Amino acid sequence: MLTASLFIAAISACSGSGPQSSLEPEGPIAQDIDDLWEFVLILATIVLVIVLAVFVISLIRFRERKDDQRRPRQVHGNTRLEIAWTILPAVLLAVLAVPTVQGIFDIRTPPEGPDVLQIKVTGHQWWWEFEYPDITSDDGRTLLTANELHIPAGTRVNLTMTSADVIHSFWVPPLNGKRDVVPGRVSFLTLVASEEALVADNGFGPGVVLGQCAEFCGLAHADMRLRVFVETPEDFEAWAQQQLEPAAVPTEGAAAAGFETFNQVCTACHQATVSQPDGTVETIGLENFIEARGADSPFWSSFGPNLTHFGSRTTFGGASLDNVTDHLTQWLANPSDLKPMAPEYNDLAEGRILGMPNFGLAPDEIANLVELLQRWE
Amino acid sequence: MAVTAERVDLRPPGERGVWSWLTTVDHKRIGLLYGVTAFAFFFIGGLEALLIRLQLAQANGEVLSADAYNQLFTMHGLTMVFLVIMPIAAAFTNYFLPILIGARDVAFPRLNAFSYWLFLFSGIMIYSSFVVGGSPDGAWVGYSPLATQITETVRMDYWAIGLNLLGVASIASSANFIATVFTMRAPGMTMLRMPVFAWMALVVAFLLIFSLPPVAIGLFQLFLDRNFGALFYQAAAGGDPLLWQHLFWLFGHPEVYVLILPAMGIISEILPVFSRKPLFGYEFVVFSGAAIGFVGFGVWAHHMFTSGMGPVAEAGFGIATMIIAVPTGVKIFNWIGTTWGGRIRFQTPMLFSLAFIAMFVIGGLSGVTHAVVPADTQQHDSYYVVAHFHYVLFGGAVFGYVAGVYYWFPKWTGRMLHEGWGKVHFWLMLIGFNLTFAPMHILGLNGMPRRTYQYGEGLGWDFWNLIATVGAFTIGVSFLLFLGNILWARTRGIPAGNDPWDGRTLEWTISSPPPVHNFDVEPVVHSLDDFWHRKYAEDEEGRLVKMPAVTGGTLVETGGEGEGDTHDAHEDIHMPSPSYYPALSSLGLVITGYGLIYLSWGWAAVVVGMMITLWGLFGWSLEPITREEH
Amino acid sequence: MASHPVAETLPGGHAESGHDIHRIRKTAMWVFLGSECLFFGAMIATFLLYRNSTGDGPGPEIFDIPFTSASSFVLLMSSLTMVLAHDAFERGDSRQARVWLGGTALLGSTFLAGQIFEFTEFIHEGLTLPTSPFASSFYMLTGFHGIHVAVGVMLLMAMFILSLNGRLYDDRGLNVELVGLYWHFVDIVWIVIFTVVYLLQVL
Q: Which of A49, A74, B162, C19 sees the fewest Cβ atoms within 10 Å?
């Protein structure tokens, strides 16, 4: 037992690995938490070892042997000992309480200042919507994306979060602890990625860390994942400008046919900001959303992810599927094949969206749509 | 004795057959019913756990669909908490609380039967959801507004109604146990002469009495939201989802102590017997148990450190949570102190009790790491938490209750469980348990959230998940051995006699199994561990000296005022008669429950169920307690 | 059926050590009432949380304080008649006990009728369960209390009927003292509800 628990303690101290591990911090906040955790772990391990050692010694020393005629002394207790082992743990816990309280106020203080990057996060069943309210185009549109969060290294990022439906929890372990995303409430979380995070590669490319929803939110809770791309400030700026560009409406070929279908089917829930051949820029799908939900929804902007730059994302379906032709084709044929969803319960007026329905698209329609979406980088 | 049997004509309408069990009001029979039922549910809940582990054995597992997985983990939690550990604790309490305090039955034998039948029928009701369109799938905590989101199916109605019915059963049995302890103790059995197990049963009863109402109200609110358009938890209309979390954890945290304290009571009985020493610091063990219960009401929000209560509340609840570790530590030190200087016999009840201590220390310490709020923001809702509470509730509670089964099986059946197979069971269970749950600490810290039916590749979780699955099946095998041992020992085990372990408490003074009326003569208690002091004295050094005259279990002491021969005393024993009203009343409640679940056409069932319940309750309150046949 | 009141129906084995069945029952009743305190406490807390969440629906301004004060007074008086019933029963005056039991049931029913009337009025004014969290918590709290009163009235009437046949005994689960405890508790809870839900919200 003793060896087993020592083994456990040892393993959990040094087996931090993986792109979603809290034991491999990629930023100062997660680092602080990890330091505190290691302090607690060491303290707890010392207590564990001492207590179990005394326990095992007692068991070995006072075991009944063959023909054991010992007559144990009937000790009923010892008040001094009792007081000692009441006070000792209390003191130990007081030691622990100090950094705990300090840590609470540290992680709960939202960052302020002009250099803070503001991002609004909305949890949906089962995907993440991200809006950068301070990054706007000339015509006043804000940057919108889904499931893949891009942040500049070294910059403090303030997430302002709420939920469109049920409770979710935003968790990217290498950057910070989790924070619940509650409908009707706004919660905050600070993310800071270190410069080292730019090059750290845990199997998903340099600068990529993983996270996922941590509060059970229904059928596809497990597939409500997200990726954070840590970039240099220059790369981030370039990405942001590119994302603000409208997508071009194709004029010929498969993509043009795909756009027809997109306009008829997809815009019921999805939006895309497009530039027509004549240069006019409009957000298609927005009207449908406003009609169903009203214009005063302060946070979330659509029923499904904004698809303007779908082709530039590495994943889709709540960051659970690689954005490749095969997956996309299969998804459009029947979304619930790839990710468990319950679109039969969708009720747009109630704002209850439990996944993308199967629209019964024909194979050529699907191919055209794939062509369109991949072109919209 | 023939005279006695004739005069103490206890349960005239037969002691055999289904009807006798259906109408029994004997606390021992009800205890056995609780035990057997809980054990059956344990195998169901265990099967669910094995399916879950199969699914998670490797990345992208495809044994179960997401829908099936969500139902299974919800039912696993619900089953283990409400249909296994609470009732197994109720089984021990029912069977032994009256005997340990020298009573002939609980205060309200029929209310006791009512609690059992309501528990059984509610359990069956919740499980019937599997065959009529799916079981509850919103996790056992049923966080709103997820729990109120889909009203097209009745899955979460089964959960809301089922839990409330189970709550009624628990409140009834708790009131019963409290009244029993306060009013039915044998002469001389002062509160501070009660065995620790009786004390813990009392604390648990108070915890339930005060913690169940808030969650019952929460469940009603969810039910009204789901079925009558109420807005308690609808954020868009101004409802606050966090209200549910407060109401739930105001119950849910004391519930943790409801699950663990009886097990602590059991091992506090076992350790002294197998160390041949009194419990070290009896008063401290008792009062620390009461303190845990009391402080347990002030820490509920440590389940909500990520929900956004604000730093002041988080700091407060974090510190309160650390404080509760102090009385818990006191208990552990006293248990170790009990073994120190003893003559320790490593028989199966003792082995499981010792494992309880070791595993509980680990679970307790990982609990302290949750109190460190910043660290908890990483641990919360991850597999680290799953590891923690299994160390407490499996490594702790289940080991404790299994210890209790090995310890008291001879008293139930008159036969011993097989010691060799018991040891194999022990080692398999201990190894399997650690293989299953120790890796989950690592998984959680490496970012694996709980309640996820699948995980992707490349996250570094595959290896430890596989180990955990191997461990889970090891546990499964160990429990099959346990079951086999029980079935074998029932008829072929070594006859136990009255006092197989050289025990300290009153149950070992009477025959195995005990007579219906428990004590031929009401015992008179002179000290803590009264029976022990009738067998042993202490010399000047405080060492044990066996008293020559008395042999275990055959001891008779005339009790009560006045002398009189034993036959006179027997004449006064009127045990309550069997009654079918308790089962009838609880059946009516469950029919009502079904009606509420299927409200659209269930009104008739609601009316019928209420009428049956009323019929049962009125019949019950008007029937004489003992049948007058003489 | 028993034709003699006490003595022989004591539960098993208790006679010899003098366990008092009344004490046992009263202990359990007090424990149950302790539990009930938390039931109502949880609902009152919910109401306080939502007292301003009236949405587009009506708020506390629709309360008719004089009317509810009157019905509260009726309920309070029923506690007095309950005491008188218990007193008469203790004296062995079953006739008078019956009168007071009936009176208590009548006063309780009057209170219930008042509550039904009040609910009907509120519904007419647009306050229904799904109107707002305020409405939901108001109806749940006062409705639950109403159910408690109704259960009490049923128990009183059952005792009334039993007493007609001379079958109302002290040793039964259904006895005047226990029902009295319950009834007083329900009354006290109403005083709290009336203060918190009605008076404090209007002031």
A: A49
**CB of B218 within 8 Å of any CB in chain C?**
yes
For the segment B212-260, what is each residue's pLDDT rounded down to a tens digit?
A: 999 999 999 999 999 999 999 999 899 999 999 999 999 999 999 999 9
pLDDT band of A18, cuts 50, 70, 90: confident
Residue C20: its pLDDT value, please?
Answer: 75
Chains with 3 or more CB pairs under 8 A to chain A: B
B349 touches chain C (CB under 8 A): no
**Rounded to whole angstroms, how far apart are CA atoms B620 and A350?**
49
Residues B574, C10: C-beta atoms closer than 8 Å: yes
On the question of pLDDT at C56 being above 60, the answer is: yes
Alpha-carbon span B296 to A286, nearest angstrom? 51
Residues of chain B with pLDDT > 70, as a percent, come to: 92
Chains A and C touch (3+ CB pairs under 8 A): no
Q: Count of CB atoms within 10 A of residue B427's CB?
A: 12
Closest by Cα among C157, C152, C154, C164 to C95: C164
Q: How far is CA A218 from CA A168, A302, B381, in A?
A: 10, 20, 15
**Given the DSSP bridges, would you call strands B536-538 and B544-546 parallel, antiparallel or unpaired?**
antiparallel
Unique residue bearing structure tokens 């603000």: A244
| Residue B259: Cβ-neighbour burial (10 angstroms; 0-12, 13-18, 19+) | buried
CA distance readout (Å), B230 to B444, C49, C128, C133, C196: 37, 15, 9, 7, 21
Q: Which residues contact C91 (CB under 8 A, 6 or more apart)?
A: none
Instruction: Identify the burial level of B529 via C-beta atoms within 10 angstroms of its C-beta, where 0-12 means exposed, 13-18 middle and 19 or more buried.
Output: buried
How far apart, in whole angstroms, are the C-alpha atoms of residue A334 and residue A344?
A: 13
Any chains having at least 3 CB pairs less than 8 A from chain C are B
pTM: 0.93
pLDDT digit string, tens, across residues B110-148: 999 999 999 999 999 999 999 998 999 999 999 999 999
Of B212, B237, B624, the CB nearest to C2: B624
Q: What is the pairing mode between strands A179-181 and A168-170?
A: antiparallel
State the ipTM, two decimals: 0.94
Q: pLDDT confidence of C173, banded at 50, 70, 90?
A: low
DSSP class of residue C12 equals T
Given this model, what pLDDT does residue A223 score? 96
Distance CA B333, CA B79 (A): 32
For residues B37 and B117, the answer to whether their CB atoms sit within 8 Å is: no
Name the nearest CA neighbour of B452 among A211, A281, C98: A211
Contact criterion met (CB below 8 Å) for B400 and B263: yes
CB contact under 8 A, B541 and A340: no
Tokens of A51: 């207590």
- DSSP secondary structure string for all residues of C171-200: TSSS-HHHHHHHHHHHHHHHHHHIIIIIIH
Element (DSSP H or E) covering residue C40: helix C21-49
Per-residue pLDDT of B256-295, as tens digits, reads: 999 999 999 999 999 999 999 999 999 999 999 999 999 9
Is residue B553 very low, low, confident or very high in pLDDT (cuts 50, 70, 90)?
Answer: very low
